[in-house]
Amino acid sequence: MTHKMLELPYGQDDLEPRMSAETLAYHHGKHLKTYLDNVNRLIVGTPYENLPLKEIVCQASGPLYNNAAQAWNHILFFKQLSPRPVAMSPLLSQALCAAFGSIDKFKQQFCEAAVKLFGSGWVWLAIDKERQLHILAEPNAGNPLTRGMNPLLCIDVWEHAYYLDYQNRRADYVENYWHLINWERVENRMMRDDCTLYY
Fold it and tell me: For the whole prediction, is pTM greater than 0.90?
């Protein structure tokens, strides 16, 4: 199985000014491509050769895990973005309020986790098998799949995600991120029993 590049569901300059076309060209066109190229090279002749990317993330270790998880994480990240933010439904709003107290408290906790995560990594909104929502700060290629949770929303806080646009101002990048979210896609992920068929 060859793992193919994601076609973006928007134009390369459609997320400006919050995410520049230059950032997207490097982030999607070079970083994601490199991770997928590495996965396709590393799986040849191994038991992972015909597995979906999600199964590789759940089962692999070492360089293969790192590249597969980074690829999976990036695909989910890019697919949740939208040039025209899609509003949060009452259902999703109620779920977030029940878990975190309010939408503002959820965003505050998520932002704090993203800004304070030392070094590179990802911050996630995830749902566990008991349908409880969690904010997880994961270093490097960390992914909630390895904890038995389904990812719903993520932000990439590796420097390549924001340095061209925001330099070392990670907090500004995180703040602008909220204006690019397709909440309908987040809700669709929440309503699934597993994430086998979606990113």
Answer: yes
